[in-house]
Write a sequence for this structure.
């Protein structure tokens, strides 16, 4: 029989600082936020998000330039309307980046590794969702800020009103980011392959927008303006626009707005339900993936 020998290799317990759960959560948020813009990834991953971000800035820059030359206040694009005007670009950004944040770990079956650290399932969901919300907010708020700063430099009339409208526009951008990120994350989380995820998010956007547009057109022809307004709750951009118009005092940028303050409150409640429901669905999805 061979004789076993135990060697003293000098093992010591770790006695340094333990950063804990908050550090893990913050690191996960920062990692996903960087991933949304392709940072820390190959060069080809940076092309789409930064090209889309550049396209988002072009109308704002052009609007400020026209205002500087003509001195016409109408040349400045309304802050609250900017996201709706550029909704196709925002939707493409959402479709291309939501799968990066929501489905890569599912596809490669590495979610259990995350939960081997002091981070819970809810923390995982909140960090990823917050990263996509931040990315979308930055995408929409940057050109709105350019409009505001450019207007001030070019001496737009009534700076006080401009400030209030700008702040309202930022609130609208945040609401857009929350609703769109909630929808995009849920769709992408159930389509592990990135190509399918991109197509699925685009399909949800196009189908909802087209359906609402068709119904609103029919309702307008039949002078059923109540239906024309309320059906807007079924499309994310129309939904947030109702809140902006009815609760934040913005001018409508889309056809058909749910009537009165009641319409705004209902639209806001729907937004909250979408966000909370998204967190619940993602929690169950990633929890199940973590056990597999």
């Amino acid at each position: 029989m061979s004789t076993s020998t135990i060697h003293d290799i000098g093992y010591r317990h770790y006695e340094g600082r333990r950063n804990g759960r908050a550090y893990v959560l913050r690191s996960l948020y920062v990692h996903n936020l960087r991933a949304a813009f392709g940072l820390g990834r190959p060069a080809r991953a940076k092309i789409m998000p930064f090209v889309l971000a550049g396209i988002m800035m072009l109308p704002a820059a052009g609007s400020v330039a026209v205002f500087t030359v003509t001195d016409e206040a109408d040349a400045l694009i309304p802050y609250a309307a900017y996201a709706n005007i550029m909704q196709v670009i925002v939707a493409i950004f959402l479709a291309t980046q939501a799968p990066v944040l929501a489905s890569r770990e599912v596809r490669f079956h590495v979610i259990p590794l995350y939960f081997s650290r002091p981070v819970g399932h809810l923390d995982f969901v909140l960090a990823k969702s917050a990263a996509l919300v931040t990315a979308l907010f930055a995408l929409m708020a940057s050109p709105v800020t350019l409009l505001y700063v450019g207007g001030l430099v070019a001496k737009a009339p009534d700076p006080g009103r401009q400030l209030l409208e700008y702040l309202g526009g930022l609130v609208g951008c945040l609401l857009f980011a929350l609703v769109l990120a909630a929808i995009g994350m849920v769709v992408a989380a159930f389509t592990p392959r990135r190509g399918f995820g991109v197509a699925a998010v685009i399909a949800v956007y196009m189908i909802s927008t087209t359906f609402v547009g068709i119904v609103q057109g029919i309702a307008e022809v039949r002078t059923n303006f109540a239906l024309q307004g309320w059906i807007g709750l079924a499309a994310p951009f129309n939904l947030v626009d109702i809140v902006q118009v009815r609760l934040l005092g913005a001018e409508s940028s889309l056809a058909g707005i749910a009537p009165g303050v009641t319409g705004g409150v209902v639209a806001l409640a729907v937004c909250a339900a979408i966000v909370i429901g998204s967190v619940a669905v993602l929690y169950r999805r990633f929890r199940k993936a973590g056990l597999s």
Summary: The radius of gyration is 23 Å. Residues 20-291 form one domain.
